[in-house]
Design a protein that fits this description.
The chain contains 13 helices and 17 strands. It is of the alpha/beta class. The strands form 4 sheets. Strands 3, 4, 5, 6, 7, 16 and 17 form a 7-stranded mixed beta sheet that branches. The protein is globular.
């Protein structure tokens, strides 16, 4: 089958790889009809992880069941399904508690597994014509028949639940004001989810014009951090007060603009900005990715995953914070039903739908944030 294969920093190729096969009675083989490129894929694409050449990318996958193992009881050939990026068993201590992003079974020695991602287990990615789904009864979420709302449903694999998860981590409640740092797909989903949860005012901080425009289109207040200190900009619009809650949808490759207008990487800049943005006794949600090791970190501490965070101010203000990757299964069924009933249309973030063969160009343009590339969905069967 054809698949997107990592070749080295800033290089992927569509190549022929082995077809997946049933390896366990609980497996299913899904013919992939839609698979999205995630901002997390860019960390590997840029060589900012320990990913080795040869890995097949793709953890945001939707498709049609092609084959099932003898132990699969709830799925049938031809059914349309979307899979959480988390590979989870459904029965370990963490899974039964709802923490499927931290499954203790699927990736021995590490809490959590995922498709096509470094250190997340032996699960081949789904930016391919087919993907093997382990524990398929648990990991496949059924969708309505046909092709309707395909680009909405594929976002249930990761970014819609992850944006919602950021709100859960920050305990966003009706009437809260919320500052979301990062206007990429996850940041926009976090802002959108805050509104679904009844937030009174939502700010989105970024510098990319298309992202800020998208934020404004959904009713958020865009804040361009190149035009001045974002925390101060937000406080000025809040009558001098900070927001009730804050969400970091950026992670460890955060950028800052220097005094001479030149960009520089400051891994802790978003965390420290949020500490200043959120009012005393507020809360922070941090779904943005941070890693224990970063080969491309700007200094020796950052390379070891140690950042200069203003813990003193965090403590002084009595701020609460929640961190960690999304437990997709906790949210995807409810979010699916919002889509079905036209209460949510997350596909507004999708800028491009392309055949699989155009993946190398899509990665390059998405990584450079050019030509309006905000979220790309690939169609392997096109």
């Amino acid at each position: 089958m054809r698949a997107v294969v990592y070749k080295g920093p800033f290089e992927v190729a569509v190549e022929q790889v082995a077809d997946p096969r049933i390896q366990h009675p609980n497996d299913a083989i899904v013919r992939v009809t839609s698979t999205a490129i995630c901002g997390s894929d860019l960390h590997m694409y840029e060589g900012r992880t320990a990913a080795e050449p040869g890995i097949v990318f793709g953890h945001e996958n939707l498709g049609v069941v092609e084959e099932t193992g003898d132990g699969v009881t709830t799925l049938s050939r031809g059914e349309r399904v979307v899979m959480p990026f988390n590979v989870a068993c459904g029965f370990c201590k963490n899974c039964t508690a709802g923490f499927t992003g931290f499954c203790l079974t699927v990736n021995p020695g590490f809490a959590g597994g995922a498709y096509g991602y470094v250190a997340m287990g032996p699960y081949v990615g789904g930016q391919a014509e087919y993907v093997r789904v382990p524990y398929a009864d648990f990991n496949c979420l059924k969708l309505p028949e046909g092709k309707d709302k395909e680009t909405d449903f594929v976002l249930l694999a990761d970014i819609f639940p992850t944006g919602y998860h950021g709100n859960e981590l920050a305990d966003v409640r009706p009437g809260d004001s919320v500052a979301v740092y990062g206007g990429g797909p996850v940041g926009l989903m976090a802002a959108y989810s805050a509104m679904l949860r009844g937030a009174s005012r939502v700010f989105v901080v970024d510098r990319v014009t298309e992202r800020l425009q998208k934020a404004e289109e959904i009713g958020a207040v865009p804040i361009n951090f190149t035009e001045g200190n974002p925390a101060q900009q937000i406080k000025e619009q809040m009558g001098g007060q900070g927001t009730d809650k804050g969400i970091d949808a950026v992670g460890y490759q955060a950028q800052a603009t220097g005094k001479k207008g030149k960009d520089r990487e400051e891994p802790a800049t978003v965390l420290n900005s949020l500490i200043e943005t959120v009012r005393p006794t507020g809360a922070l949600g941090i779904p943005g990715l941070y890693v224990p090791r970063d080969p491309g970190g700007p200094d020796e501490q950052a390379k070891q995953g140690m950042l200069m965070v203003s813990i003193g101010r965090l403590f002084e203000k009595g701020l609460r914070l929640g961190t960690g990757q999304c437990n997709v299964k906790r949210y995807n069924r409810q979010l699916r039903d919002l889509i079905i009933e036209d209460r949510a249309r997350p596909s507004f973030v999708v800028s491009h739908e392309l055949p699989l063969d155009q993946a190398p160009t899509a990665y390059e343009k998405f990584d450079k944030r050019v030509e309006g590339y905000t979220k790309v969905v690939l169609h392997p069967q096109a």
